[in-house]
Amino acid sequence: MSPQKQATFRIWRGDRLGGEFRDYTAGVSEGMVVLDAVNHIQATQANDLACRWNCKAGKCGSCSAEINGLPKLMCMTRLSDLPLDQPVTVQPMKAFPAIKDLITDVSWNFRVKKNIKPFKPRSPDAPDGTWRMAQADIDRVQEFRKCIECFLCQDVCHVLRDHQKHEQFTGPRYLIYVAALEMHPLDTEDRIDELRNTQGIGYCNITKCCTKVCPESIQITDNAIIPLKERVVDRFYDPFGWIWRWMKKKSDRQSPNAVKR
Amino acid sequence: MPEYETFQHDVLVIGSGGAGLRAAIEASAAGVSVGMVCKCLLGKAHTVMAEGGIAAALANVDDRDNWKVHFADTMRGGQYVNQWRMAELHAKEAPDRVRELEAWGAVFDRTKDGRILQRNFGGHKYPRLAHVGDRTGLEMIRTLQDHGVHQGIDVHMEICILALVTDGGRISGAFGYDRERGRFKIFRAKAIILATGGIGKAYKITSNSWDCTGDGHSLAYHAGAELIDMEFIQFHPTGMVWPPSVSGMLVTEGVRGEGGILTNADGKRFMFDFIPDNYKAQTADNEEEGWRYTQGDKNARRPPDLLTRDHVARCIVREIKEGRGTPHGGVYLDISWIKKRIPNAEEHIKRKLPSMYHQFKALGDVDITKEPMEVGPTTHYIMGGVHVNADTQMSDVPGLFAAGECAAGINGANRLGGNSLSDLIVFGKRAGEFAAKFAKENQHGKIDNDKIDVYAREALEPFENSAGENPYSVQRDLQEVMQHNVGIVRDEGEMRSALDHLKTFWERVGRVGVIGNRDFNPGWHTALDLKNLLTVSEAITRAALERKESRGAQFREDYLEKGERFSKVNTMIRKAADGTMEVRLAPLPEMPDYLKQIIEENK
After folding, report:
1. pLDDT in tens, B82-111
2. Do B209 and A54 count as a contact with CB atoms less than 8 A apart?
3. Active site residue B70
4. What pTM was estimated for this model as a whole?
């Protein structure tokens, strides 16, 4: 047997206060991914090396990191796709505060999501309490629901990464979440006002960086964000629509059966 | 004693997968305060890995289906040592639980008339699995998560529980640490629901992730609860075998449900060679009929590739052992062949099995629309777990409930694919309902501070021992022993030797050391998980020794046949007063006549 090929992994070690890159060497075998190397280093050389991972199959979205500077899932990044004649750098996502080593504080994402109005279905279509939906009408929603919440799109989005607009902008992940709700055939809720006013969809200038890093290949910009932007435009910036709604409101006000909205 | 941060909830749920989330939602709806502890981040639990679907007799695709057939299928699959009442409740309630998910926003694949689509799966007589492509688990956990966060549940992420606390025999709380800072926490609760999932990490080759370390099994055992059926471990027949870094990763049974076939190195469909007698009447005896079944022909019988997982796994092991395996030690699973049968096969495969296509393409350089996959058995699921009351899910420790994989009874000796996701929501709901009821009827118990101090001291011991043994080495050696000595094929000698090994592992656990500090330190976490892994490994081995027969997932080379004596008993495990593990055989609960009749009618 020929001696095993070796590679150098330059892994960021540190905590909230700061840190540095440290080099580790690990053997490379066929089919290996970056997470295998990190786990191997953890088990044999640095037991306290912190990283998140669960499924190791690209389905849970836990092992997000920046590999050679690019946001990726460690479990889906094959070493055979990287130049191993130079060190493989592995560092935590930059858009979120550091906790330790490869782990960041992603709790902001969970808070943002909780503020989005939940699913509100129309009354059931059938007496047994069930609904009817055509497959063609749910294909798009199913695309968005493939999201594994790895937050790589949040990490790469310059509005969050470079401009730190976490208070004004929810990021691509939550725009596709809103899109999945808004385009759900059964949903009756209206989230257009918040999209403009609190979720900051206007900050997105469709550079498509999010789409490029999505491990599920969701067409975030084209299929979710742009259609949502169109809905916001229709609501707030279309003069004819604006006049029509104003007239409708007026007639509603004058109607004796007006329902308070 | 040092001051520990203390939380107080009426009901505490430990685990945040499908069962934990469903339980928390139900308990919260009953008007009690609910806390949920997750070992990882919310929405990352192992439920996301479930692929094929949720078994429920909705009868959307085949109107001959109903709860009775589902019940009979589940009992047959479990070789009749299931707790009949759990199997009955599960079959009856699963359809409502699935429809409820739709009302909470789940988007299942549809039939032509717009209803929830169902697919074929091993051991299910009719197409029964509601699904979303091959990512049904993700859909379930996301639906429950997104619904759950609006129900007033306090979610504590990245917390590990080290011990349950009892007061005069009833549950009073739990003690653990947060992974981020390593700080100890006390959770006072009137009722606790264990929903911690499986034990796959006791084995070397597994589809389970790092956190499936049998925590709930072990916590319950050490708190005095009884475990049942621990010998029954499901080895899923189709895990990836190549490349090494992904060996064990799950390949969904949905591949075979969609028409995929198993062949050996000679290109032979070996599954036709051995069809067990109790499945002969409902299994196709030729390839043509099997194909028609997968394409929805109601008059066709299912192909033997879709027999129960225990049987398929053993057939695969036999092919490999007898020299008809693939170059990397598996067999072939081929879905690409369907291009001979249907137009646009490539698109069809990508649409029906998108994750599988992606997984093999990205990790194995295999295009499953063009070539066969190489697969072999992988440790997937434990049928055994905390012995609970079928209706309430309460263990024999008052106030301690369990649901999902860490509870047991519904599956008997072998679980049917798809019955796990439905188990999570059916019994998650019941556990939540009855834990809330228990909390309303009882006061908080006392927390014994002296005991807490002992737990805390024990947990910190590895830090005093920084030159001690690497915890990962102990874990690896344990996984090797369980894989080889208490795996798919078992015998007395090997299992006795496993017990000797386990003894030395317990000694080594006492000597492990960790480096670094308490901040997010995986070495320390691994050291603490070892106690759980060793407890469940010992329980599995002792139960497997006691069951001197082959049944379902338990295959013993020294007892090849089913034993009459063992058809009427479950193995029970409990911690004896002297701290040793006690095993006994308990008679199965007597099944009422109306259920016996259903089984007879569906033979």
Report:
1. 999 999 999 999 999 999 999 999 999 999
2. yes
3. no
4. 0.95
